[in-house]
Amino acid sequence: MKILLAEDDEPVRELLTAFMSDLGHEVVSVENGQELVKLALDVRPDLVVTDMHMPEMTGDSMISMIDMYPPLAGVPVIMVTGASKMELDEACIPPEIPVIAKPVDFSKLAAEILKIAERTGGAGA
Q1: CATH number of the domain enclosing 16
Q2: What is the pLDDT of residue 59?
Q3: Domain count, the chain
Q4: Is 125 a domain residue?
């Protein structure tokens, strides 16, 4: 699968990129949601993985834009975040979006990616 990752913390971004690449996915990573939206037209991702708290555009703001932005309409999302349950509730993250808490449980992330790949017919492990 082609995965577009938005994560402002560089070490975490590099770790997530390496992990998902090792699973056999093509990963393009950016620092924030605004960059993700700009790249979406060129990348045409099968999956978006995003943090919630980022500069420029937060993950929850980006999620609300996804279905309104043609290059991302219908693209599944996984949120990987250090946000508290209260912050997530206030952000009104749709229930169909898997939320993985930081520090990242990589087996859970791999399982969520696999579920989405199987559901959407995406490639990769």
Answers
A1: 3.40.50.2300
A2: 67
A3: 1
A4: no
